[in-house]
Design a protein that fits this description.
Helices cover about 40% and strands about 20% of the residues. With about 500 residues, it is α+β, with helices and mostly antiparallel strands. It folds into two domains: about 5-235, Nucleotidyltransferase, domain 5 (2-Layer Sandwich); about 240-435 and about 470-490, 2-Layer Sandwich (Nucleotidyltransferase, domain 5). The chain is globular. The model has no long low-confidence stretch (mean pLDDT about 95).
Length: about 500
């Protein structure tokens, strides 16, 4: 008798939207169905830029309710992943103290440099192993030092841990996400008293750490009543940092692979067995974040499809065409390497007008500003491909690895022009897909916890066997990419 596939629900929250996805997992089977998608829009208050976390939570509840109504078998478990670094503070009664700040809020301006100076750049990296990004949790908390909100707080929970708490009443900190905070010791995998002391943080605010695949609790009765799911439905701790979940679903079945998890951000790097904490790695601004099974995600954040989506948002507000296929077709016709940008230039973090910011950057760097949609989009995509190339080659050098293929997963894997450019720039094949890598990784960690699939290699083998991918061979214009990189990064 054949064992029926198990049913799981994944709540996957990105920087611009959230969704709830049902996954059926069994021998040779990995099938996904999206049951609810809802927007994630920043809220601007007098205190700054915030996330509408109650709205996101309601979207999760609505999705679970729709999932319960569509399921023909009970759910084995539920898991939640989201973006990293942002957090909520709970008071002694477990109530949320205000809306969590958005990582693009400017309250951390200048704070990161002060913390680095106080700790010492080498010491900071030697403990946390993190890329120096101004919005890391440690810098957000330093910016909040002395506030009434922080003084009243009894517990700090990162976004997916906070939503898990609202679902279950259980408090914990999932380690792949905790590793992005700047408060976790990269060497020991424990909270760092040293970093808490540097910013004057009470370490009692930090909850116990949890590994992916461990139980987080069962649904509260009120959640069960609203969703129609049984009250004993388990919630499982997944790799709750969305990039960690996406890397689980990279269908790499041979050595020599690098990855780019491409969505709002491009996270480009390697999976390692241990962190790289050398001075060279610090100077190159690489991060060492935890992955599933004690692996290390050795990578750098690159401003990703945010650049293009912000352009589309601005163009749409002006009544201009924003249909993606048409924009990409125009970009394909545009002249190669006419204008290039450093995607990580600070002016692109949160501009009011992205097309204008790109044009201004080009003029400031002695280039002609892109004209029209096609030139602007081509500028973005070629610049991203060059950033992928630069980061991955440097990661391989610092880690002592060779790269013979790149797996590009996430929403960016649907962008054929970007995938082709990345293959051409790298000079190695690009395997694009799955686009739903984050949700798949979430579901697979749940499935392994339930005994439906085996270890990481088996999970990736299942992805490779069941999910559609596209392969892009590198072209012959190597000289053009070499010259473009020299022009952009020297």
């Amino acid at each position: 008798m054949t064992t029926p596939p198990a049913l799981f629900a994944a709540a996957d929250l990105g920087a611009t939207s959230g969704r709830v996805i049902i996954g059926r997992v069994g021998p040779g089977l990995l099938d996904l169905t999206e049951v609810n998608r809802f927007p994630n829009t920043a809220t601007r208050l007098p205190s700054g830029l915030h996330w509408n976390l109650p709205g996101l939570y309601q979207g999760v509840l609505d999705g679970l309710r729709q999932a319960a109504g569509s399921a023909d078998t009970p759910f084995t478990s539920i898991g939640i992943d989201s973006w990293a670094v942002d957090y909520g503070l709970l008071d002694a009664d477990g109530a949320l103290l205000g809306l969590p700040h958005h990582y693009r809020d400017d309250r951390t301006r200048g704070v990161a440099d002060h913390v680095r100076d106080a700790a010492g750049a080498g010491c900071l990296y030697g403990v946390t192993g993190l890329q120096h990004l101004p919005f890391n949790t440690v810098f957000q908390l330093a910016a909040a030092r002395g506030s009434a909100q922080l003084a009243a707080a009894k517990t700090l929970l990162l976004v997916p841990d906070l939503l898990t708490y609202w679902l279950t009443g259980s408090v914990g900190a999932e380690i792949t996400n905790a590793s992005t905070t700047g408060l976790l010791d990269a060497r020991t995998g424990t909270w760092s008293q040293e970093m808490a002391d540097v910013i004057g943080l009470d370490p009692d605010l930090l909850p116990p750490l949890r590994e992916p695949g461990t139980p987080a609790g069962e649904l509260r009765p009120s959640v069960a009543d609203f969703t129609g799911l049984p009250a004993n439905t388990p919630v499982v701790t997944v790799a709750s940092h969305d990039t960690a979940s996406a890397v689980v679903a990279v269908p790499a079945t041979e050595p020599g692979s690098a990855y780019v998890s491409c969505g709002t951000w491009s996270l480009a790097g390697l999976e390692l067995d241990a962190p790289v904490l050398t001075e060279e790695s610090r100077a190159a601004n690489f991060t060492n974040e935890r992955g599933v099974d004690g692996t290390v995600r050795y990578l750098r954040n690159i401003m990703g499809m945010w650049l293009l989506e912000e352009c589309r948002r601005v163009w749409a507000a002006r009544g201009m065409p924003t249909e993606l296929d048409a924009l990409l077709a125009a970009a394909a016709r545009a002249r190669p390497f006419a204008a290039l940008i450093d995607p990580d230039a600070p002016e692109f973090l949160a501009p009011a007008d992205m097309p204008a910011a790109i044009a201004a950057y080009c003029v400031r760097t002695g280039q002609r500003a892109p004209e029209g949609f096609g030139e602007t989009v081509r500028c973005i995509l070629e610049s991203l491909a060059l950033a992928h190339r630069r980061v991955l080659r440097l990661a391989a050098e610092l880690a002592g690895r060779d790269i013979n293929r790149v797996h590009l997963v996430g929403g960016g894997s649907r962008n054929e022009l970007l995938c082709g450019f990345t293959a051409d720039a790298m000079g190695v094949p690009v395997v694009a897909g799955p686009a739903e890598a984050t949700a798949i990784g979430n579901l697979l960690v749940q499935a392994r916890a339930a005994g439906v699939v085996g270890e990481l290699a088996e999970m990736r083998g299942l992805v490779a066997a069941t999910q559609r991918v596209r392969r892009y061979a590198p072209g012959r214009e190597r000289g053009g990419w070499d010259a473009a990189e020299a022009r952009l990064f020297t």
